[in-house]
Design brief:
Chain lengths: 334, 335
């Protein structure tokens, strides 16, 4: 069976004056049609660089995809020319960025920006494109869509701007939507609106989704599987229910424990993860999480674990995942 | 200082208002006002953490700053240990600032990049003429130790530290003058998840060790529940609900609080799937032109005629020993 997207051993580095930054260190995952995956990690974990590499959006220099493949519908995206990528980006795969204030052009009307892609990719004329743009605005829940096409981005609120971005991304019916922290800049009540909208749109349009976030709680109710990244590695990947019930990597466990529970009466002291994320200018010949890991043993400081099969459809890059399974058998939320 | 429910009232905020004028035209005439804080009243008890929560633009930071007189309130009183801060002159205010400090949101913007950590933390001591150069240096080293940093860092500059470490420097600076009261304005929202817990635990420990009182401002409700004793929920310049945290989180009587709680994602796929979500329509209206009557009525699913006409009273629906203040005409029906 071929996957919609298959990323294999992707390596991206930034060649800076201060040294070579190993941003993404050989990540692999697959995504089928209509499936959704969340890539979770803290700032600097490589979660954004990983998808930007696939889309050919890494600023180069200093960045470079050194090795690996990203097969999209069987075609390797790594190494394609700018022109070839331009035909795929926006049409077959589209992206929604974190900050809706800066990702729209302030001096062009929303209608102009929405129709641009339609005319370019689908060869529509002005009228067709306008009609389609208004339909898209209506689809994402913007009232008076025809009238609003003539408005400028500053006339929309933050939540509405993100809706416009989503409309723009989905206008050419892409089979893959990449959402890079689309709700981080928004308030919780607006975040809930956007999450609900994306869920509905996925049901209606059936596109696959890569949702990048730092918030494990946010994606719990909306994706099929989760990949957790740390220091440029995927350290754990599992179906969504398994991951939250029984995390098999100490970092995932630490993240879940360091979040206070909203519905817990008795608050126990938060289990923080001590220390800091590592400097990415080194080659890890040890587990990158070992210096902060309460489970670390000597082996962890000598050898960097590769991903190991840790159950059906799940992998963990921890030497002690089996011990962890014994210990956390109760599950985080049980 | 008054006694209430066995707890000592430390700070009393009475009908606090902060309006920012909107000027137009050649003559800069005032044509309106942004009512950032529009009449809030509450007490802060000695030794407690009062959590102030709300969405961006609801006036929670302005409230914190107005209490410390970093912004001059338009109206209202702030009684700190019985003295009205709004009536104090500059020099008296300066003296009283020894006792009340602030921790800022952005650990990158709130530390002067040209000053060493030692100078940053020692500056409040210098301003208030506490000790001599030698004892100040000792105090700075002690403070660094208290917040979990190596005293050896005293001559380094802020850029040499990570976000979480910088926030610790900000905490050390706030603690320098031995204050009783600290306003923490979103102290963790700029930090990564794994670092947030470190800073929150630090603040919690310091409160116990040093007997501090906090006004903890945040938009993250689960963190507010974790750290606070009582919680005040703000919407568009007003406090809509105030009670002890378990009452607010488990028995909320205000539709806005309920919607806010229901918007928070829970890190558990099973609970998320079963959950009935209450999703608010639209966004927060402009505080320059707030809706008539109850501020929240255009987004509220329970709104009736009275809500658009009369501003609801901020009333106690709990008991005297366990007060539960709500500003909603229909609060009784949620009991």
């Amino acid at each position: 069976m071929t996957h919609l997207l298959e990323v294999r051993d992707l390596v991206t580095k930034f060649y800076t004056e201060q040294g070579v930054v190993n941003a993404v260190n050989g990540i692999s995952y697959t995504l089928d049609e209509g499936e959704s995956i969340a890539i979770v990690g803290e700032s600097g974990s490589g979660k954004s660089v990983g998808v930007l590499s696939i889309m050919g959006l890494i600023p180069s220099p200093p960045g470079r995809v050194d090795s690996g493949e990203a097969l999209f519908n069987g075609r390797n995206l790594i190494g394609l020319s700018h022109d070839e990528l331009r035909h795929i980006r926006g049409r077959e795969m589209a992206m929604v960025f974190q900050d809706p204030m800066t990702s729209l052009n302030p001096v062009l009307t929303v209608g102009y920006q929405l129709t641009e892609a339609l005319k370019l990719h689908l060869g529509m004329d002005d009228n067709q494109a306008k009609k389609r743009a208004a339909e898209m605005l209506e689809l994402v829940g913007i009232p008076n869509p025809v009238k609003r096409l003539d408005d400028y981005p500053h006339q929309f609120s933050g939540g509405q701007r993100q809706r416009v971005m989503i409309a723009m991304a989905l206008s050419c019916n892409p089979s893959l939507l990449i959402a890079d922290e689309p709700t981080t800049a928004l308030d919780v009540t607006i975040q809930a609106q956007i999450v609900e909208l994306v869920k509905q749109l996925q049901e209606k349009l059936g596109m696959a989704i890569i949702w990048i976030t730092h918030d494990l709680a946010l994606v719990a109710g909306m994706v099929d599987k989760v990949a957790v990244m740390y220091a440029g590695y995927i350290v754990e990947q599992a179906p969504v229910h398994d991951l939250y019930k029984r995390p098999l990597h100490p970092y995932t466990l630490g993240l879940l424990h360091s979040m206070p529970k909203l519905d817990a009466k008795e608050q126990t002291r938060l289990a923080s993860i001590d220390g800091l994320p590592p400097d990415l200018r080194q080659n890890f010949n040890y587990c990158p999480f070992a210096p902060r890991c309460p489970y670390a043993i000597d082996k962890c400081k000598q050898e960097n674990p590769a991903l190991m099969a840790a159950g059906p459809n799940r992998v963990s890059a921890c030497w002690r995942w089996e011990d962890l399974r014994e210990e956390t058998g109760f599950g985080v939320n049980a | 200082m008054s006694q209430e429910n066995g707890k000592e009232t430390f700070i009393q905020v009475r009908n606090l208002k902060k309006h920012f004028p909107i000027m137009r035209g050649v003559f800069r005439r005032q044509v309106g006002a942004v009512k950032a804080v529009d009449g809030v009243s509450f007490d802060i008890y000695k030794g407690e953490t009062l959590g102030l929560v709300g969405e961006s633009g609801c006036g929670k930071s302005t409230t914190g700053r107005s209490i410390l007189q970093l912004l001059t309130p338009t109206e209202g009183e702030v009684l700190f240990d019985g003295r009205d801060l709004t009536k104090l002159g500059q020099s008296e205010l300066r003296k009283s600032r020894r006792h009340m400090q602030m921790i800022f949101q952005d650990p990158y913007a709130s530390l002067n990049p040209r000053m060493t950590v030692g100078n940053i933390i020692g500056e409040p001591l210098e301003i208030h003429n506490i000790g001599d150069a030698k004892s100040r240096k000792d105090r700075v080293k002690e403070l660094l130790k208290i917040v979990g940093l190596n005293p050896y860092f005293i001559n380094r500059y802020p850029h040499e530290f990570s976000g979480g470490q910088r926030q610790r420097i900000g905490v050390a600076r706030a603690l320098a003058t031995n204050p009783d009261f600290i306003v923490a304005d979103e102290p963790i929202s700029a930090l990564d998840v794994s670092i947030q817990a470190q800073v929150v635990n630090l603040l919690d420990d310091l409160k116990d060790d040093l007997g501090l009182t906090y006004l903890f401002i945040a938009h993250d409700l689960s963190m507010i529940r974790y750290i606070s004793d009582r919680v005040a929920v703000m919407y568009l310049g007003k406090i809509v609900e105030l009670s002890d945290k378990d009452t607010v989180f488990d028995h909320s009587l205000h539709p806005y609080t309920q919607a806010l709680l229901s918007a928070i994602p829970i890190p558990d796929p099973e609970k998320e799937e079963k959950r009935q979500r209450l999703i608010l329509e639209g966004g927060v209206p402009s505080p320059a032109n707030p809706p008539s009557g109850c501020n929240f009525h255009p987004r509220c699913s329970y709104a009736t005629d009275i809500c658009s006409q009369t501003d609801p009273e901020f009333r106690n629906l709990g008991t005297d020993s366990r007060p539960h203040f709500v500003a909603c005409h229909h609060a009784e029906q949620f009991k």
